[in-house]
Amino acid sequence: MALQRLQIQHCRVFSSLINNQLNVRRNQSVLATPDENPRILITGGLGQLGTGLAKILREKYGKDNVIMSDILKPSKEVVEAGPYIFADILDFKCLQEMVVTYRIDWLIHFSALLSAVGEQNVPLAIRVNIEGLHNVMELAKQYRLRIFVPSTIGAFGPESPRNPTPNLTIQRPKTIYGVSKVHGELLGEYYHHKFGLDFRCLRFPGVISSDTNPGGGTTDYAVQIFHDALKTRQFQCYLKPDTRLPMMYITDALRSLCEFMALPPEALKQRTYNVTAMSFTPEEIVRSVQRHVPDLKVTYAPDSRQQIADSWPQVFDDSEARAEWNWKPQYDIDGMVDIMVNALRPKYQN
Predict the structure, then answer these.
(1) 20: CB partners within 8 A, 6+ apart
(2) Distance from C-alpha of 308 to C-alpha of 289, rounded to nearest angstrom
(3) Which of 249, 169, 171 is nearest to 207 (CA)?
(4) Do 66 and 83 contact (CB within 8 A), yes or no?
(5) Angle at the Cα of 162 from the Cα atoms of 157 and 163, rounded to 5 degrees
(6) What pLDDT is stored for residue 337 in this prediction?
(7) Starting from the edge strand earliest in sequence, which strands make up the sheet with 245-249, in order?
(8) EC number(s) on record (predicted)?
(9) Residues 214, 230: contact at Cβ < 8 Å?
(10) Could you give the CA distance from residue 209 to residue 214 in angstroms, rounded to a whole number?
(11) Of 291, 274, 281, which Cα lies nearest the Cα of 329?
(12) How confident is residue 350, by pLDDT bands cut at 50, 70 and 90?
């Protein structure tokens, strides 16, 4: 009996020593990694923001220091551009193995189901948007990663002031997408205050890009209009013509993220910021597109996404980001439209 107790005590001491060594190695790994050359993992990398962000970060920090991941089969161009691996955010062990194997310092978590898609499959949205978030948050805490989780105008609801919507105000979203984003904001801030996690979050407006096809989200009409205008000269909008929403060209969105992530922790007065560039209605972007496609014909047939849009901010107040870390957008509506038309015209010119 005495021998058994001695063996148990020996195992406990040995286990404690191993855990202490692991903690020392984690601390040494983090301290030895210079911020100017972080190793970065992007989840959901094949979505709207991931590919463009990986390109920018690879130019800045090195091709092999930025690892894209997703559950989708990548194109040849994606594979040739730099490291790409399969990653299911619901598989904690898989994510943990990647963080350790690739010695990850920053984790940029894009994996999520968007607003309209999430409403069609709420159980799946809960798993991806909430359970997946828990996995990456716990990994970031365990390995002392700098973690970025995007939020959205969808994190606000009809009770929030809509014009303008300030950085700190009541948040009562009416979609599972919005609920999951508020959950992410609060959980990240809790982990920051409780465990010292370097959590960072930007609330993005609708993001407009020519690189990916519209995915059915509430603000995606502002992308679909370019494809339809250049292809058929006819566009049917699922929102009312006077529905005002905040928007942003993708170059501004990616630049805001890169600038935000590069800031030293002591430069941040808070962990979650609004960022935006412009606000417009469908009829306003139609007029701007008609500068390039004068014969564009537009009809309006509001669907379920109208109710979602009516609960979101009309104008986003990002004055705190501008004041505290000098955020400033470069593109207005006409500048964005000019770039989008020129980028997509060759695709449809025949």
Answers:
(1) none
(2) 25
(3) 249
(4) yes
(5) 170
(6) 98
(7) 206-208, 245-249, 278-280
(8) 1.1.1.103
(9) no
(10) 9
(11) 274
(12) low
Structural contact between residues 133 and 199, judged by C-beta atoms closer than 8 angstroms:
no
CA contacts within 13 A on the Cβ side of 120: 9
Q: Are 246 and 206 in contact (CB under 8 A)?
A: yes
Q: What pTM, to 2 d.p., does this model score?
A: 0.88
Contact 331, 288 (CB under 8 A): no
Take residue 125 and report the two structure tokens written for it.
């949205």
Is residue 64 within 8 A of residue 79, CB to CB? The reply is no
Give exposure, 146-160, as e/b (b: 16+ Cβ within 10 Å). Answer: bbbbbbbbbbbbeeb
User: What is the rounded distance in angstroms from the CA atom of residue 323 to the CA atom of residue 325?
Assistant: 6
- Whether 145 and 161 have beta carbons less than 8 Å apart is answered as no
Chain position carrying tokens 């365990």: 142
What percent helix, strand, coil does the chain show, rounded to 5? 50, 15, 35
Which position among 84, 177, 221, 273 bears the catalytic label? 177
pLDDT in tens, 40-70: 999 999 988 999 999 999 999 999 999 999 9
Residue 326's SS3 state is coil
At 223-282, the pLDDT tens digits run: 999 999 999 999 999 999 999 999 999 999 999 999 999 999 999 999 999 999 999 999
Helices (H), 106-147: 115-120, 122-126, 132-143
Structure-token pair, residue 230:
């250049």
Tokens read off for 9: 């005590």
Cα 233 → chain centroid: 32
Give the Cα separation of 268 and 314 in Å (integer): 26
**How far apart are the C-alpha atoms of 306 and 101, rounded to whole Å?**
45
CA 80 → CA 54, 63, 150, 197, 209, distances in Å?
12, 10, 27, 33, 22
Q: Is 177 a catalytic residue?
A: yes
What three-state secondary structure class fits 205? coil
Radius of gyration of the chain (CA): 22
Tokens of 121: 């499959």
Which residue shows structure tokens 């935006």? 276
